[in-house]
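Researcher: We're teaching a course module on how sequence relates to structure. For the next exercise, students receive a sequence and then see the predicted structure as tokens, so they can try to spot secondary structure elements on their own. Here is the exercise chain.
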Amino acid sequence: MRYEQTKKLSNRQFKRLVGVQQRTFDEMIKVLKDAASLKQTLLLSKQVKLGRPSFSLLTILAGIPNLLPHC
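Model: And here is the predicted structure for the students to work with:
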């Protein structure tokens, strides 16, 4: 399921699918986008060539709750 499709889910359905509340997920996206933007700025300022393509931020973020222990 794509991120755009998850916006149509209820809060309960979203938490069941992703593992965290939608508000928490949105905050996590904001932090990751800020970090990616900073990383890109630093790489461009150092004129470093990027290696192989990486996963999208949303793909990374969707996998994080599965790595964390459930309390």
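Model: If you want an answer key for the exercise: The longest helix spans residues 22-45. The chain has a mean pLDDT of 75.
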